[in-house]
Amino acid sequence: MLLVQQNEAESLLAGGSQCPTAATMSWLKGYIAQPNRDVGRPGTVCPFVPKAMRLDCLWFAQVPFADLVRELEQLRERFFLLEPTDVERKIGKTVLLIVEDMPVEFLLDGEWLTWLAYYLEVGLKITAFHPKNPQRGMHNPAFLTHVSPYPLLAVRHLHVRDSAFVAQLTGTKEGELLAAGYTRLFKT
What we know:
Elements: E1 4-5, H1 6-14, H2 20-32, H3 49-54, E2 58-62, H4 68-78, H5 87-90, E3 94-98, H6 105-108, H7 112-120, E4 124-129, E5 152-157, H8 163-168, H9 173-186
Parallel strand pairs: 2-3
Antiparallel strand pairs: 1-2, 3-5, 4-5
């Protein structure tokens, strides 16, 4: 898998590229890292992204759906070797796997949850995004929080502030997996 660092993605965007990596960078900068009153709380759409961007901690890769299993198996170990590895910045490290041909059924049927469980074993979280993802917001159920211009999986360290997602997803398979991973990592 060819990984592109944040500064390369920003250069693609600045150069006018319309490739999926540039489009995803544009979406992050212009939407996810911006305040939006429809979220139903103060702050940006995702509170983790602005800090990750400031720390230059984002990585991007375009992956065909046919190769996703192999790439996810390899990324779980490779993630810890990617920069940054210093204690102060590594918590913001995020890899965005852009999977243009990922069917929405991969999300809706719960197949991706197998990967969430696999990654949680080592303290990592996967979040699934898709142009047709129906997941609702925590603070405003009318707000679709996981809609993106391209199907993608975001991989990052599980954070102590993820307890809000654990609470929001109580009673779902995703919530059960997150709760178990959160409890294992943070001993709560």
